[in-house]
């Protein structure tokens, strides 16, 4: 595995945690460093770190707050 990828994995605790849970990525990243983008995509998919997930969470929070305000009227 390239040193740059190792440093990135050590710096981000979510990446390190995902790598521990899904150890097959060690093999994939050792074989080909180009798999790093697939690793990042899979991690973001699991931990809901995509922009669409964040927008969906914000909309859910707004709906919850508006529901609470409606019940208080």
Keywords:
73 residues, mainly alpha, single chain, 5 helices
Q: Helicity, in percent?
A: over 70%
Q: Low-confidence spans: pLDDT under 50, at least 5 residues?
A: none
| Helical run tally | 5
Q: Report the strand count.
A: 0
Q: Distance between the terminal alpha carbons, to the nearest Å? A: 59 Å
- SSE string: HHHHH
CA radius of gyration: 18 Å
Oligomer: single chain
Name the structural class: mainly alpha
The largest sheet is: none
The amount of beta strand, in percent, is under 5%
Average pLDDT number: 93
Rough outline: rod-shaped
Task: Tell me what you see in this structure.
With 73 residues, this protein is mainly α. It is built from 5 helices and no strands. It is rod-shaped and about 60 Å long. The N and C termini lie far apart (59 Å).
Briefly, what is this?
The protein is 82% helix and 0% strand. The protein has helices at 3-11, 13-21, 24-31, 36-47, 51-72.
């Amino acid at each position: 595995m390239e040193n740059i990828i190792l440093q990135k994995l050590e710096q981000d605790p979510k990446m390190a945690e995902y790598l521990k849970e899904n150890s097959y990525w060690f093999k994939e990243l050792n074989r080909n460093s180009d798999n790093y983008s697939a690793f990042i995509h899979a991690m973001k998919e699991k931990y809901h770190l995509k922009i669409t997930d964040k927008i969906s969470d914000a909309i859910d929070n707004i709906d919850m707050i508006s529901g609470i305000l409606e019940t208080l009227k």
